[in-house]
Amino acid sequence: MKIYNHLYQIVITYLTFLTITWLQILRRNYVILTLLLSLNFIVATPAIAANLSGDLLKQPATEITVSLGNSANELKFEPNHLEFLAGKRYQLRLTNPSQLKHYFTAKDFADGIWTQKVQAGKVEIKGAIHELELKPSAEAEWVFVPLKSGIYGLRCSIPGHTEAGMTGEIAIKS
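User: That's the sequence. What structure does it adopt?
Assistant: Structure tokens below.
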């Protein structure tokens, strides 16, 4: 009986060793796979690669102005169709010449860009931005680099403004 207990202990120890070894191998392979996928993402996205190299911030920003409404208080974006190229740096100047407040809401677009900054008055905001509110006569500057190509919706999320036609489209091309 002692011999069977001893063999049982040896088998259990061996199986434990195999299990731990396989878990370590799987963990190592998971880390390697994660690193390879990360590198592939960087190679596949020229804008991110340019950003990492520091060349991106040296690139002059292409300036585009968008009016939220107009002095006649019409509910529209002027222009209401915007096109950007992935990997280029842009400065979007938003103005509100109307007597109403308006929102520049484009969450999916904002998720597909790298925001360098949003500046309004003496305040500079960094990080993820999904919506900007411009009060009457306000101006804001949004500096960003498009990363993900696609067509994104733009709207003013104030009740009634979208329904009245304050919508637009933003296209990011590769």
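The longest strand covers residues 113-120.
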